[in-house]
């Protein structure tokens, strides 16, 4: 009744359905993961609380919990981490969202380079890590408040940049809207954007791009 | 005085500075392109009118004008078009923005497959062209009104999808905001978004990704 | 003093007044239902909590509580469920709102077909249930995030579609605004919309339409 | 290239594709209508200007122009107008949108009863026409400014009400947003809403409902 | 330090300063009322909780608490209630705000006629009380959701109408914005508006107007 | 067909229907005024252009045009101007809206005292005219930009204040929203507000209040 | 890992990095302050709770807590307070934000003159303290609701004014947006604005300006 | 009648009233400047068109017109330009607003250093001009699109920074709102903000601060 699992998705997109835990009851999440784990490993559940994690353990399924990232991985198995994704954060307060991106990408089999707390209020911190940025196949830039970091990184590198605005801030940050608008209006050219606090979506798309870099497309 | 051309950009990002014509006077645009054409070819000028085109011709520079895309290419030279970028539009009215993406990508040396007028009001039109979608390294999806096409494409393909909301619509479309929010909240996982009507930005990022697919990254 | 029950409404519209519980005190709700139950059965109270349910039981009135739907039916009596209303949900998290629509319609004497978790991220799930959709006299489509499902269903069926945007999502979903705008701007033609999370309103209007289908209007 | 006409739509929904003229060039509209007229009659083109009308006449196609409604009907043929749809307007300034609904419904074969300028500032005007309202199978209520008329009609009748907010007003009407929000939050129960100024959408859905009333569904 | 009581206000406007309790600490409120009670009686404190009430009693000041209205009156003394102010509410859920208006007006020495739960979903309820409305010198109309009641009352009466939008509702009511915009765009002519949930402000201005009616201005 | 004149309104509210000219065609306005002038004099038409004025003269009706106020008075007759309404403007640019209020009030038979260009950037200008303010039965305060003048006046006087936000300003004035919000949140107590640029509505309500002051209500 | 302290900032701007505590874990704050206190004194931590304060004391660092201002100063040392900054508040409820500005400025070595509760509802309170205002080198004006005080002060003084809108208010104050827009649209000329509730930012910039006044710039 | 010139302002703030030309008629502007020029020189008129300029010349007053800045200076006289204000622009399209700031400051007697087209898409352009920035007493930073430049400059310098968001951009720039929010949420500490496109306001406040630097305050 309550869930029609998209079992075909893995064939279609290479990744099984990802469970968004908010708004789902514990029994629903248990049921969904139980059925999925018959066919899949490294099942990602995002916005998962400790309570969700314990409920999955209780029904006898192996799983890992990444607390800062609020991600649970059910039926985990080791996976080679290839290529190079830079996950960059503006401040310390943006780290939970950055971790959601990083853990998503790692679980999907990518090597991640975390570059945290390099916001534009002290631009030399970013300039100091330019070499790390230049080595990445794709960059995820996570920033709240005015979100200016995405533009500055976008102007420095030649790889695609995925901006993740965060809800860090107050007042006229309007829960991340200021950073979102800032990134959408970036004057740097290679920047696209995902939803506010959507570290998962950025990590997922970064994985798609990084995998392209590693596995050369067939000649045309 | 009025322009500090980022001549270093080409070295940094592989593409010379792109001129955004809105808000610039004709003499300013002439001056900028004149200086740039000493070093660069295939100089992109976006949001260019016929008046801009004629002003550049007048100062003796060779250039091409793509009317629907509102793009002018100054100092044009033939460039091999490699890889495969799908540019998908929901309706006929979205074509100018789709063309901005397509012409940008072609000028930057990419092969583009145009798939127009396949919006979700008649979903079979999209299902009929699935094979074209599956062959692309990256898809640009251009849609106004409710912008649902980005999610549907995102659920079908395994390549990255870049959504471009357009200002096509009226009333509660709020100049493209409805489509923008729709794409930002896509329930499909590999979708990122650029600004409303920013075909240029989508074509540019699609080029970065498509080039990665063509030129395999060095093994790590 | 506090309530002027619209006792005439049942004669006028065929349905007695429906009690919206939010913002009313327990004694007020008790008083209103007590007076209404002298004349009516199957009294609907929406946005009802367990506390409301218990308070009504306490004053000796028979009632049923539909927890997911947050609907209480006071003075319930069996009612034939006729016709065919499809209630469609995009995700598992949208089910509470879908249930509000379904329980409302059932209480008003309609047959409901629940079609849940068929969102556009995996469009084949929807295509698999097309026959169910074609049999309905009217469809209620419940979706959060980008709300694209209403347009896709609207493009497939020939019956009226009532879209219900939900507040499922985060960030730029703005508590359901993204889905609301998406549905209002639907490129499919037979779609109208009710307030965010207003499963009740959609179920109510669907009932009006389904009853028309069952009881043919007098010839003109 | 520019249009992929949904020729299958007529089979699916009973109505051929409707052309939204804004954002399309004259040659595009000519091409689309030309191809459609090989298979269909009574082709609706909305938001059509006199210029569009003349361009269609010029290529030798028969067509009618409804100026207030901004609707052009290409390849017109007589169609029986059955049932009863009430199209109600709050003020004189709302009539163009009301006409878009009325002409759409009439072209699709419905009988329309126009009830104009009965806004709530003088409620007796509405009460005087109650009998007309009671006879309709479905009502379309068109109102700008505060859009209160939809709620008042919704509280009076037992048929479904489709609200159309209009952009009539100034200042804090925000181009129809005030009326839109008003209708979405209607305290009357059978009201659903379409986009601001979307007379077409309301007329279309009203037609679907009215046709149900006329052609009783098969017994279940 | 923390408060500069506007002791001159009473001379200027006829009413001593009114204390808005939100955002003030208990000791601050105690200090302010203590000083004011040396000179004034019937001191109004709005948005007062039970905790505030008890804190004032504790420092030995006489006071009354109106729970629904969230108003505390310190140093109360009997005052003649003259004239006639109608306070009208759309639904039962709007009563707390209506009571804020009524208690404010009564404390300032006005006779108040409460007319509650006469919203437009059942317009006959309002028509039944027209005579009460006609007798008032000024009407305060309190409504949430779509706020249509202010326009309907405004079209019926010849006295000034002060609309008070309430935050009753959900989804696209946006915490009272729908009702606020509705009232600001009223098609009836004698309507002005105060802030969302600002029963106090409406009661205060109604008092000013009602007092004018009672105490005829000197001939000019 | 197009207009259902509310001929009863004059009996009900003391003022015949007022014609809002925007969105009405010239023939519609001619028709409406023609019919109204059979029964009424001093017919107000707001938002009237010179073109409207000439069209009314052409059909042989006497009328006056107040250019700054954009008000036309058809079938004018002398009327005694009683009482005292202060119409206060913050700047020179707000005068057209202030004039709409003043001319409305004068046409309805009120004495108006214009106090223009006394905005808060130079507060002494306002303090210099305090005596004028104190003599008014009601004040209309017209201000754009930050609209602070309404609060300052509201804090000075003991009569009701009606704030009219204007669309004067740019950028974050958002077409008058800044002034509107400012006035709705006034920290002064006797202030209510009408729509942005709605000088008519303010003049109308001020007239209702001023008439109360002049014609003392019967003792109760 | 989690923090890249901008140790160079003090050399660059004269003030060490300031810690924004929201969104940081206690161990993160402890770690950051611990490292910073090796080089700096008078380290500012804003939006600090009692819990943060106790956690810093626990690791053996000296610190002071300013409760109203929610500011913690780690490694405090006496600092001469020079010049003159006026911190002005409209109401008592705005004091916490005003204190954030005042304590920031004092910690950075400025003399602060607190002028509280002088809002425009009683303008004479402000006029009474004009001399205090005239003596300041720079004024910080803190106001919620309609935020009019910034404009009135800006029109009175010849020093720069920094407006701080606060979130004090309800309904259409939208969490401080009304005051923010009001201040941005100030009709007085020397006013700039910081984020809603950003007392820190205003105190910081006021300090920069006041220091300029005290330490005359070198002759050019 | 139409203007109450604040002749006292010059004494109070050191600068005579500045005329905002939008919304004023030509005769009004002529009248105001005529009266002011009896007492003042270097009278600033902002948002002035060529038409305004010619109208002032016509009545025999000397004046200068700064076209890009849209500023007219009536009764001009030479004034020493002291101190050092940096006016920084992100792009070429932002220059008109930057010029409004620069010309305002120069007219008020300040030395201005123009640093244009140094936006963050090519951060090295800004780093190249750091020495110019370090020499300024105050910086005005003018940027549209995402407005990130204000934060980057704010993080580099130790002088106060005044951000001016511009309406340069499209789509989700919302006429400058993106840049405005970006600057209000700056993670750099010494940044305050003026209204969108308000170059005048920034130049004016910069002048106040620069004059403080030049004329040391008297010792306290
Ligand atoms: N954190 C997340 N943010 C956005 N989308 C997500 C997130 N986690 C999962 N999803 C997507 O949300 C969909 C879940 O829908 P459902 O579980 O059916 O309600 C899946 O298709 C995922 O791709
Ligand atoms: N300038 C105005 N602003 C707001 N309402 C107005 C204005 N002028 C007239 N009205 C009202 O608008 C209504 C006219 O609506 P309509 O039937 O479209 O003419 C009348 O009831 C008037 O009271
Ligand atoms: N969940 C709901 N959403 C929207 N409207 C509702 C809901 N439940 C009841 N209503 C309507 O709200 C009105 C109740 O108003 P009240 O007088 O406050 O009880 C009734 O007329 C119902 O038709
Ligand atoms: N159509 C466009 N949309 C968004 N950005 C653009 C567009 N065209 C050019 N740009 C970018 O805008 C910047 C131009 O800024 P400016 O210095 O004003 O010319 C360049 O860095 C481009 O990368
Ligand atoms: Mg940091
Ligand atoms: Mg099409
Ligand atoms: Mg699912
Ligand atoms: Mg009318
Ligand atoms: Mg009720
Ligand atoms: Mg003036
Ligand atoms: Mg106070
Ligand atoms: Mg440039």
Structure description:
The structure is a homooctamer of 220-residue chains. With 220 residues, the first copy, chain A, is α/β, with parallel strands linked by helices. Helix content of chain A is 37%, strand content 19%. The first copy, chain A, is built from nine helices and nine strands. The first copy, chain A, has a five-stranded parallel beta sheet with strand order 6-5-7-8-9, sandwiched between helices. Chain A has a four-stranded mixed beta sheet with strand order 1-2-4-3, sandwiched between helices. Chain A is globular and about 50 Å long. Chain A starts with 8 loop residues before the first helix and ends in a 6-residue tail after the last helix. The model of chain A has no long low-confidence stretch (mean pLDDT 94). Chains in contact: A-B, A-C, A-G, A-H, B-C, B-D, B-H, C-D, C-E, D-E, D-F, E-F, E-G, F-G, F-H, G-H. The D-F interface holds D 91-95, 114, 116-118, 121-122, 124-125, 168, 170-173 and F 1-4, 6, 8-9, 17, 20, 22-24, 28, 32, 165, 167, 175-177, 180, 195-198. The complex binds adenosine monophosphate (4 copies) and magnesium ion (8 copies). One adenosine monophosphate sits between chains A (17-20, 46-47, 198, 200-201) and C (91-93, 117, 119, 121).
